[in-house]
Amino acid sequence: MKALEQISDSDAEKIGQRLGIDFNFFTVGEFKEALNLELNAEIKEGEFKPGEYLSSKELEAIGRVTMSHINVFDD
After folding, report:
1. Model confidence pLDDT, tens digit, residues 35-62
2. How many domains does the chain fold into?
3. How far apart are CA 28 and CA 51, in angstroms?
4. What is the C-alpha separation between 21 and 48, in angstroms, rounded?
5. Would residue 2 count as lying in a domain?
6. Are residues 25 and 67 in contact, defined by beta-carbon separation less than 8 angstroms?
7. Which of 8, 11, 22, 63 is the most buried (most CB within 10 A)?
8. Is residue 4 part of a domain?
């Protein structure tokens, strides 16, 4: 995966497909925004470095954490 500081729409859609997300409840763009918030939080916490190359498994893990937040704060 390319070096990331922001997750793209296409990456967000791929992550969503791998996680089996139903985009009838929110858009890919909204999911991308949530992914980028989580990515930035993890960068801030030192989990990743800005511009670091992230594997598809790391991106999927960010997606899972993002979905856990969405499910907890369902509004």
Report:
1. 999 998 988 888 888 777 888 898 999 9
2. 1
3. 22
4. 24
5. no
6. no
7. 63
8. no
